[in-house]
Design goal:
Length: 538
């Protein structure tokens, strides 16, 4: 089915094609740019193009594909870097040079490569869609191959194969291959969803100890300009106690992404000692790339993440920043002349975001394994104003929110997580785990730590009036202990060895500070003056 371009407005194009379906993939213009149908009217349809529309003109052809926007799922995704349309950047560079040409259709997976297939089913076995039929070794992971249809196995491969060759033939003639396509807008099916109860260790003391995250949970990091969102996301990508990390650079600076790629190539995974990139997939849509592709990069990434979750792995999706996607939605919505909602964002902003958050979770997969998809997404509110619509919509949907504070960042307190504004709904469930596995005192110490910080805040006001000298020794001691909590415990420099703090180290560190506070308090009661005790401690 072919039609003609009748209008172009930035990334949106209207065409006179009839019979299109909503969210159908189309190829736009002579250069065959990838686009998706976002509105259908009686005699025309509107398409959002994921590639640069510069140079496109009226009456160029538009071709319907009859399929939705899909990603290819199969072995070979790990350690790769993709653009928003799942084109592998390394091969794109080989073919087109460092400046990506629009419309270059390069498959995400390498169809020449041979993989060794280990079958887990026998001839004659009855299999169901989603069931595991065998695996290949992808780096250090077993990449399980799942059946795409039901039936009885009439033959199954054993040995080397390429992704073009069928692995299984079913009675009746249908075939199962090592890879397949999946629509990015359809969540992967599962048997059951559970509420998150296992911790997602980030190696950040402020998070693991005060606002713990859960595998299968969602967290947002709202923070104004320069509050450390990118550094925090990257630290978590390096150190998170998880099987696979999918990192999306969405609409942020290209040089930061280049640094990340260079940095990650040399690092080892602190949990396994293997190469860090072996467990990563990067999706890159930097600020100089087409705006509409921010949407496709987010959906491409989440679909690949879900796919590995389906194999029974624990997967973490990191996106920096979700606000850039929301801005793209606003731009597209305004060129579609839709009725604007708050601050010009489309009225469906909140539902689009919450549907996206819903794709996280702990699942029992169709093959009976337990996998999870967790999300940590940064949000960049303009002017650091947390009341703006994107931050508010994210706060409503996320299970944990780590509010990054500009005043802490100015004082070089990093990560600049505000301990009064942040929260985690997983606190109770995860505490149980830490108490059982790390320290019986975990909860008690957390209460003590929060108490010290709260009392410090109250005392600061009094000290502001009477001065530090006007405070009693016991109050001055508290201020001293609180400073230790902030500077020695909550601060973590991302550029030193301290960047990663395992929970065992975290609990020892806070225990030391609380013990110090208790000991000095005891000495004060025995009548020793504070200054003398502190001098002795030095
Ligand atoms: N954990 C950390 N340890 C040491 N320095 C940090 C840390 N986090 C942030 N910084 C410092 O703060 C600067 C800004 O951090 P970052 O680029 O992550 O902020 P951002 O919130 O992503 O900014 P933007 O809004 O511009 O994207 C960094 O260049 C670094 O110097
Ligand atoms: Mg940033």
């Amino acid at each position: 089915m072919t039609g003609k371009i009748k209008g172009i407005s930035g990334p949106t194009v209207s065409v006179d094609l009839k019979g299109l379906k909503l969210y159908e993939k189309v190829c736009v213009g002579h250069s065959m740019l990838t686009g998706e149908v976002v509105r259908i009217e009686q005699d025309r349809a509107v398409i959002q193009t994921y590639e640069d529309t510069k140079g496109l003109s009226i009456n160029e052809p538009v071709k319907a594909t009859g399929t939705p926007l899909t990603v290819r799922l199969g072995p070979g995704l790990l350690s790769e870097m993709f653009d928003g349309l799942q084109r592998p950047l390394s091969r794109l560079r080989e073919e087109t040079g460092p400046f990506i040409k629009a419309s270059k259709d390069i498959c995400a997976l390498d169809y020449q490569r041979r993989w060794r297939f280990h079958p887990l089913k026998d001839k004659g076995a009855e299999i169901k869609s989603g069931e595991i039929i065998g695996y290949v070794e992808e780096g250090r992971f077993r990449h399980f191959i799942m059946g795409s249809n039901n039936g009885r196995v009439s033959s199954i491969a054993d040995g080397d194969f390429t992704l073009n060759e069928p692995l299984v033939e079913l009675e009746g003639g249908s075939k199962i291959f090592g890879c397949y396509e999946w629509s990015v807008r359809i969540p992967r099916p599962c048997k059951k969803k559970f509420s998150p109860s296992e911790p997602l260790i980030t190696g950040q003391r402020a998070m693991d100890f005060l606002f713990p995250l859960a595998r299968g949970g969602t967290a947002v990091l709202p923070g104004g300009f320069g509050t450390g969102k990118t550094i925090l996301e990257q630290s978590i990508a390096k150190f998170a106690g998880i099987d696979i990390v999918v990192y999306v650079g969405c609409g942020e600076r290209g040089n930061e992404m280049a640094e990340l790629i260079e940095d990650f190539a040399t690092l080892t995974d602190p949990w396994t000692g293997k190469r860090l990139m072996e467990r990563m997939i990067l999706v890159v849509n930097t600020s100089n790339m087409p705006v509409a592709a921010r949407e496709s990069s987010i959906y491409t990434a989440v679909t690949m993440a879900e796919y590995y979750g389906d194999m029974g792995y624990h997967v973490l999706l990191l996106a920096d920043s979700i606000s850039r996607w929301a801005e793209a939605l606003r731009e597209i919505s305004s060129s579609l002349e839709e009725m604007p909602g708050e601050e010009g964002y489309p009225t469906y902003l909140a539902s689009r975001l919450s549907n996206f958050f819903e794709r996280a979770g702990v699942v029992e997969t169709l093959s009976g394994k337990t996998g999870s998809l967790s999300m940590i997404l940064s949000v960049s509110p303009p002017g650091g104003d947390f009341t703006e619509p994107v931050t508010q919509a994210c706060l409503r949907s996320a299970g944990a929110s780590l509010m990054l504070d500009a005043s802490l960042a100015h004082k070089r307190h990093f990560p600049a997580i505000n301990w009064f504004q942040s929260y985690s709904l997983y606190e109770k469930a995860i505490s149980r785990h830490f108490i059982a596995r790390i320290s019986k005192k975990w909860d008690e110490l957390r209460q003590r730590c929060k108490e010290i910080l709260q009392r410090e805040s109250a005392l600061k006001e009094i000290a502001g009036i009477v001065g530090m000298e006007g405070l009693q020794d016991s109050d001055r001691l508290l201020m001293h202990a609180a400073e230790k909590v902030r500077m020695e415990f909550l601060c973590q420099n991302a550029y030193t060895e301290d960047a990663f703090s395992p929970p065992e180290k975290t609990v020892l560190k806070i225990e030391e500070i609380v013990e110090f506070y208790d000991n000095v308090q005891r000495m004060l009661k025995e009548g020793m003056p504070l200054d003398e005790i502190l001098k002795m401690q030095e």
